[in-house]
Task: structure prediction
Amino acid sequence: MSLLIYGLINSVILALYTVGFSLCYGISGIANFSHGALYILSGFTAWNFLNAAGLPFYLAAVLSVMITAILGFLFYWVLLLRVRGIPLAELIVTFAAGMGMLELLTWKGFYGMRYSLPLFMKGGIEIGPVAIDFQRIFVVGTGVALVVFLWLFVHHTRVGLAFRAMAQNERTALSVGIESDWIGSLSMALGAALAATAAMVILPLGMMESSIGLEVLIYALAVAIVGGLESTLGMIVGSFIIGFGQIAAARYIGAKWMIIVPLAAIVLVLVVKPSGIFGKFKELEERV
Amino acid sequence: MAEAKVQRRRKRLDRGIKARTDTIFVIASKRDTLYLLLPRVLPVIALLILPLVLKGYWGKVLVFACMYGLLALSWDFMACCGLFSLGQALFFGMGAYIAGTLNHYFQIPPIITVPAATLGSGLLCAMLLGPVVRLKGVYFAMITLMLPLLLKKMIDTTGIFGGTHGLPSLSPFPSELVATYLAVVGFLACLFIFRRVINSDYGLVLRAIRDDDRAVMSGAINIYWRKIQAVFISGAVGGFAGALMTHHYQFLGLSTFALDYSILPVAAVALGGQGTFAGAAIGSLFLVPLSESLRALGGLRMAIYCGILIVSIIGLPEGIFHYMARKYHQFEKVVEVK
Amino acid sequence: MKKGILVMALMFLFAVCPIFMQPQDGLCADPIVIGVPTSLYTPFGSYGLKAVNLAVEEINAKGGVPVGNVKRPLKVVVADTRDGEPGTPVHDALMAYEKMITEQKPAAIVIGAFRSEVLIAAMDLVAKYKVPHLGTIAQTPGFQAQFKKDPAKYKYLFRVTTDALVDATYIAHTLDMLKKDFGLDKILHIYQDTAWAKFFAGFLQKHCKETGWTEAGYEAYADGASDFSPALTKAKESKAQVIGMIWDVPLGAGVFAKQYVAMKVPSLLVGFIPPMGSPIAPKAVGPEVEYGMTVEFPVGATLALAKLPKTGEFLDKFKKKYGELPEPPAVNSSAYDSVFVLASAIERAGSLDPDKLVEALEKTDYPGVSGKIKFNQDHIMVFGEKSAEETGVCVVFQWQKDKDGNLKRVPVYPEFLAEGKILLPPWMKK
Result:
C-alpha cells in the first residue's frame, strides 16, 4: 500500500522535474541544460523574498516564478541566439550558464540548514496504515494540473502548436509565419516558469542546496528520454516507470540501489527502443 | 538617376601566399615553406620544450592539459564519424580502473598497465557501446552521458575495486619528467595520427558516415562495424589518458567517472572548433591553464570559468581554430553589393 | 669622467643596500604561514575556517608564536579544494593542495580535505612535500589503516578530531542507556553509504546484536538520496522503537528530518543527524524535533556545556566575532584547537623544521575546547568518555522542553557532562 502511494508521489515529483525540460527540448527543440539551475535559483529567490523582504510565501512563490520566467526568456536572447542551430554549442552554453549560476549561488553562501522553504500547509492525513502529509498531496495535485495544462497547451492553443511546429520543421514554420526566435524564447520562458513552479511545491519537502540543480537535470533527462521526447503521455509513463522502479528497488533490493534505477532505465530504453516508449520522433532521428 | 542606398558586404579572398603554397612549388621558396610549416611546427616544438621549463605544479598542469587534450581529440574523432558523445569520462574511467586495479591487486608495473589499459579500455568500451552505435544524435549522447554515471554508482554501491574510498598508493612513473614527456608525446602523436587518419581513405569513409550514412550503406559498407572501430580507437585514446593520470597521481577513485571529464573535452572542442583536431587541441590547451590560473580567485573560479566559456562560444561560434585559420589564410575586404 | 661617477654611485648603493635589507623585528617579522586547503563552500569548511581565523587572531593579539627567540605572527592562506561538491574529481582537489603547498609554502596545514577519499589520496602528496598536516574533518578509519602501512612516511599527518569509531561508541552507549532505563529493544538502522558512516553503522549493528536489540532493518542510502520513505515506512510497519540514523550530507539529512515529521513515524531518533542538532532546528524542521538525540563530536562544536566552561567561552567568542553560532556538522572546535596545538608545538620545537615539528606534535598534551589533546601512535587524537582532563570528549544531547516550553538541547551522555536525564516521548510510554 505504501509502495503504491509513495511510488505515485515519487513519480509525480519526477514528472514535475521534467515538465519544463520536455517543453523546451522535446517540443521546441531547444536544449536547455540549465533547467536544474533555474529550478534551484527560483527556490533561492523565493527564500530571499520570504526572509529578506518578509513577504508571505504565496506572494514570494508567484514573484519567483515570474522572475525565473523572465530569466529564461533572457537566456534565449543573450545566450542561445547566436548559437542556434549548432547543437554542440547550444548544449555547452546552456550547461555552462547553469553551472555558473549554481557556482555563484554557492559562492554567495547559499548552503546550509537555514535555506529551507516553508510548507504550504502542515499536517497530514492517514490512508490506511500510511501517513501522507498535505504538502505531498499538494505536490501530486500540482503535478497533475501542470501535466494536463501542458497537454492542453501544446495540442490546443495557437502558441502551443507553434512550439511543436518549430520542433518538427523550422523552415516550414518560418514560411508559415511563425517567428522562430520569439517562439523559442517564449518556450524557454515557459519551461523556466514550469521549473520554478515545480520548485515551489517540491523544495519545501527538504532543504535547498546547489547540488540539487545537477540532480534535477539528470532526472529530467532520464524521464524525457525514457518516455520519449515530444510526447506528454510518454513523459508521464516514463516518470511512473522510473518513480515506481525506484521505490520498488528501495523496498525489495536495497535502498542504495535507488539511484541506479533511473540510469539503468535510460540505458535499457535507449538500447531497446531509442525514441522512448511513446516517442514520435521515429526512425529519421534515431535510427539506422 | 535615383540614389540607391549603398549596401556593403564583406568579401573574403585567399591571401596571395596561400594560393602560391597550394601547389608543389611551395618548396621553391623558403618564405612559402615557412608559411606552411611555422603554424604546425612551432606549437609542437613549444610543447616539447615546456616539460623542461615547467616543474612541479605547473608541470602537473601541463600533464592535465595534455590529458584533457587527449580526451578532446578522442571526442573529435568520434564526432567525425557522426557519434556525438557526452561520456568521455567512460573511456577515462575505464582506462584508469584497468590500470589501477592491475597495479594494485597484481603489482604490475606501469610500463605494462598503461598499454594494457589502453587496449582493454578500447575493447570494453567498444563492447559496451556496440549495441548502441546504431543510434544517432542526442540518443547516443544520452547513453554515453548515463553510462559513466551508472558505472560510478555501481562501483559505489557494490564497493568493488576500492568502492568509495578508491585505491591509493599506486606505483608512479620513474620520474616526473618521464611522466610529463609521456603525456606530451602521447598527445602530439595522437594529434598527428588522427589528422593523418581522417584524411586517408579510412577516414574518408568515416566522414561519409557522418554526412550521409544511408549513402554509405548503399555502397555495401557495414557502417556499424566502422562505427565500432571508431569507438574502439577513441576508447583506447581515452583509456591511455586515464591510465596515465592514475599513475601520475598514484590514486584511483570513483571520481575518474566524474562529469567533469565528459564536459570539459566537449567545451574544449566547442571553444577550439569542431572537425579539425587542432581545434580540440587548442581548446584544451587554453581551457585547462585558464581553469588553474583562476584558482587564485577562490570561490568565483568556476563561475568566471563558465562565464569565459560562454562568452567565447557566443563570440566565436565556429571555434578559435577555424577563426584563426581563416584569418591566416584569407583577408577581408568591404565591397559594395552591385 | 661620467662613467667614473656612475661606478662610484653604484658602489655606494651596493654598500648601503644591506642596511635596507635587514630583517626587522616586531611588526615586520616573517609570518608563519598556515595553509587551509578544504572545501570552503560547505558548512564544514567555512565554519572551520572561521574557527581557525578566530584562533589565529587570538594568538596574534598576544604577539604571535615564539620561534626560537623571535615572536612571529600567524597568517592563514586558503585554497578551495571543492571536494565537498559532488562531481569534483579527486585530481582537481589534489591540484589545489599542490598549488598551495608549492606556491605559498605553508609551515603546516590545518583542517585538510573534507572527503575521506581526497584525504587518503592527499596523504601521499603531503608526505612527499613533508608538510605537517592536522586534519580536522574527515572521520574515516581508513586514515589509520593507511597510516599503519608506512608510519615513517606518513608521520607528517595527524588527526585532531574524532573518527567514526569514537562517535559510534558514544551512540552505542546511549542505546545501552535507553535499553537499561526504558527497556527499548527494537531498532532500525539507516545510514549514508560512505565509508565512515558504513563503519559507524556497522559498529552500531554489531553492538546492538550483542546487547540484545532486535534489528528491524539495516538500510543504506546513497549519499545523494532525497527520499527516505521506504525506510521510514519500514520503521512504522515494523514498529521499531528507535531509528538509528547516521548522515552527514546536510541535504539528505534535511529531507529526512522533514519526512520523519511528515510521516509521523512513532520512533525515537538517535544518531548523527546534523539538522536535528542545529540551534535553529525547531524553526527549520519544526517542534517535532523534540526528543531526538544527536551526538556532537567533539564538544564545543555547537553546544555550550555547563560543565565544560571552555566550550561556552569558545562559542561566545565565535558569536561575538561572526554574529552567529556555528552549524552542527562543522567540527569547528577541533579546527580551533588545532591552531593552538600547532602553536604550542612550534614553541616547543623552537623552529619550523618539519621533522622537529612532527616530533613536538607527537608529544602534544594540550587542554583544548574539545578536551585534552594527545595523540596515540597512529597519530590520531585520543577520545574517551570519562573526563575532559584526560582525553577528548563528545556529547550526546536531546531536545527537551524546559519550564517555559521552549525547546533546548540538553546533554544526556556521558554522565559527567549530563545536565538532564533522557526523556521518552509520551507516545512511547507503554
Chain C touches chain B at residues 40-41, 78-80, 82, 87-92, 94-96, 98-99, 102-103, 116-117, 120-121, 123-124, 140, 142, 146, 149, 193-195, 222 (CB under 8 Å).
